[in-house]
């Protein structure tokens, strides 16, 4: 009888806790992996981040109305917004979460999720968001020393006092979120921002030099890691001996990653949200030396080092400000790994970048976000903001009612895409028994202006062997049977144009005649959704 009463009491208390909104470990946002593909689970189901990032200084009460206006115009489901160490810990050991709480409250009012960006030890490679009390003690919290002894505007990753202070502050942030965010409004955390160093490949201070001249940590000497770094497998050695002319950069990448990883681990010990580190990119095609980009950050060539050094970081994410589809698509490929969920937390807010949302989704990505969506104090009208955001907003608006389904199809590997390149050339998509042929341009004859910006795109979901869901702009699509049916005549059984509402396809019209007889469906300037059924005659 006593045991039965205790069980009943426990069940009652659990029910009360759930009713009061206590966080459930099973419902905390998390990233899962299956067969090398990833999904971000929010409320227990795959979620696709249709994001927008605010400007650096927009997380303040006077600026937030402009941010929410931009979120609305963008039709975003997630806002990426910074939180500032200098504001949260204005005095050592004294924490102020008023701005965090305000952002949480307003995000819920606008029915938007959050990715919080921890601007702390590093922001764009510098320490400018450290609290004032740390900046006043530069000897205790020093910057990097260059190879000629010069001071470099970047924090040293070798200073325990700096790391301990960051760990304490970030731990306090995550502890506060655990108690203040029972609704799981925050779905992911960015730990630091573009951590790395400009103007010096590494720290050359006496402390750093002693570590550099010592042995490479055994974790990095595993054959799989050395092979991934394209260096000979050895069992011991100094940084210079093992890594040659890349030793300085690899040492710095290891040092920064260990620092950031320990900050992330401390935060996860308080509240285990997914955490990522973002990268200021290098040229992905030419393998330049680190004198030409931010050294020590999670660039593509040091991903194996960052993975070993910082296992608490769930993923490394590229900030895309590169020009040209060859470079951008290469970056997407490099960061789309079995051990790394693809996420683009920043992309230049230019019309041509909207197409890469399709490529990220088709590559198994969990989200995409243009940077600087808000007015940032420039005094733009709502109409001007809407026009600037329209290339991304129209995509988000169309995807939103089918977001959960698209995220699930993506996780299952059913999604493929084609994005227009600078040569405007035709592309093919392998769909098993069928091949889709995608050409770009507008009008019945697919007129392409050779110097026009390449903005065409198509995403296609394989629903079954002969049925496909499609969405796109500025392109034309036709099909060819392949395999055992190659060369056989075929036809459209049905071409349906429609839209999604609450996860279900709603028919707008059945296309036929002029809309299909000239080779197949066409997508104009505004994204539309179609379902196509095919048959071999």
Blueprint of the fold:
Layout: H1 2-19, E1 30-34, E2 37-42, E3 45-47, E4 49-53, H2 64-74, E5 78-84, H3 85-88, H4 98-109, E6 113-123, H5 132-135, E7 143-145, E8 151-155, H6 160-180, E9 186-193, H7 206-213, H8 223-228, H9 239-243, H10 247-270, E10 275-280, H11 303-309, E11 315-320, H12 325-335, E12 343-344, E13 346-347, H13 355-362, E14 367-368, H14 382-399, H15 403-411, E15 415-419, E16 427-430, E17 434-440, E18 457-464, E19 467-473, E20 475-481, E21 490-501, E22 504-511, H16 514-517, E23 522-523, E24 528-536
Parallel strand pairs: 4-5, 4-14, 5-6, 6-9, 9-10, 10-11, 11-13, 12-14
Antiparallel strand pairs: 1-2, 2-3, 7-8, 15-18, 16-17, 17-20, 18-19, 19-24, 20-23, 21-22, 21-24
Describe the protein.
- With 537 residues, the protein is of the alpha/beta class.
- The chain has helices at residues 2-19, 64-74, 85-88, 98-109, 132-135, 160-180, 206-213, 223-228, 239-243, 247-270, 303-309, 325-335, 355-362, 382-399, 403-411, 514-517; strands spanning 30-34, 37-42, 45-47, 49-53, 78-84, 113-123, 143-145, 151-155, 186-193, 275-280, 315-320, 343-344, 346-347, 367-368, 415-419, 427-430, 434-440, 457-464, 467-473, 475-481, 490-501, 504-511, 522-523, 528-536.
- The strands form five sheets. Strands 12-14-4-5-6-9-10-11-13 form a nine-stranded parallel β-sheet. Strands 15-18-19-24-21-22 form a six-stranded antiparallel β-sheet.
């Amino acid at each position: 009888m006593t045991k039965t009463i205790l069980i009943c009491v426990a069940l009652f208390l659990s029910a009360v806790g759930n009713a009061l909104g206590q966080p459930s470990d099973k419902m905390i946002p998390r990233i899962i992996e299956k067969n090398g593909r990833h999904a971000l689970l929010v409320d227990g189901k795959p979620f696709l981040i249709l994001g927008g990032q605010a400007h650096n200084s927009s997380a303040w009460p006077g600026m937030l109305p402009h941010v929410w206006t931009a979120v609305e115009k963008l039709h975003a489901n997630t806002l990426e917004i910074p939180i500032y160490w200098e504001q949260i810990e204005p005095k050592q050991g004294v924490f102020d979460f008023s701005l965090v709480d305000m952002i949480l409250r307003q995000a819920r009012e606008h029915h938007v999720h959050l990715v919080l960006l921890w601007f702390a030890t590093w922001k764009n490679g510098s320490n400018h968001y450290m609290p004032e009390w740390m900046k006043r003690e530069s000897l205790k919290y020093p910057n990097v020393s260059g190879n000629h002894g010069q001071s470099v505007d970047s924090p040293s990753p070798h200073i325990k006092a700096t790391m301990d202070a960051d760990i304490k502050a970030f731990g306090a942030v995550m502890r506060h979120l655990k108690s203040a965010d029972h609704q799981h409004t925050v779905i992911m955390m960015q730990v630091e921002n573009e951590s790395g160093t400009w103007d010096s490949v590494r720290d050359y201070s006496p402390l750093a030099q002693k570590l550099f001249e010592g042995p490479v940590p055994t974790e990095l000497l595993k054959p799989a890691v050395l092979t991934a770094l394209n260096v000979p497998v050895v069992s011991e050695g100094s940084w210079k001996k093992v890594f040659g002319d890349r030793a300085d950069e690899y040492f710095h990448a290891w040092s920064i990653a260990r620092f950031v990883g320990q900050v992330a681990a401390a935060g996860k010990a308080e509240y285990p949200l997914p955490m990522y580190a973002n990268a200021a990119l290098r040229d992905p095609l030419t393998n330049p030396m680190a004198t030409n980009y931010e050294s020590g950050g999670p660039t593509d060539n040091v991903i194996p080092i960052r993975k070993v050094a910082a296992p608490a970081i769930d993923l490394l994410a590229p900030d895309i400000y590169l020009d040209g589809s060859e470079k951008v698509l290469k970056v997407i490929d490099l960061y789309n790994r079995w051990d790394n969920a693809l996420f683009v937390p920043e992309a230049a807010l230019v019309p041509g970048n909207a197409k890469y949302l399709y490529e990220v989704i088709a590559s198994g990505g969990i989200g995409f976000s243009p940077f600087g969506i808000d007015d940032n104090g420039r005094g733009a009208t709502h109409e001007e903001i809407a026009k600037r955001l329209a290339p991304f907003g129209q995509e988000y608006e169309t995807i939103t009612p089918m977001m959960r389904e698209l995220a699930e199809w993506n996780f299952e590997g059913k999604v493929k895409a084609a994005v227009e390149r600078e040569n405007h050339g035709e592309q093919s998509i392998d769909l098993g028994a069928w091949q889709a042929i995608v050409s770009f341009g507008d009008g019945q004859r697919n007129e392409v202006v050779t110097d026009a910006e390449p903005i065409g795109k198509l995403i296609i979901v394989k629903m079954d062997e002969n049925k496909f869901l499609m969405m796109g702009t500025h392109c034309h699509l036709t099909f060819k049977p392949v395999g055992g049916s190659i060369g056989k005549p075929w036809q459209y059984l049905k071409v349906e144009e429609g839209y999604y509402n609450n996860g279900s396809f709603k028919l707008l019209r059945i296309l036929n005649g002029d809309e299909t007889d000239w080779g197949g469906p066409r997508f104009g300037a505004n994204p539309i959704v179609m379902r196509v059924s095919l048959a071999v005659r």
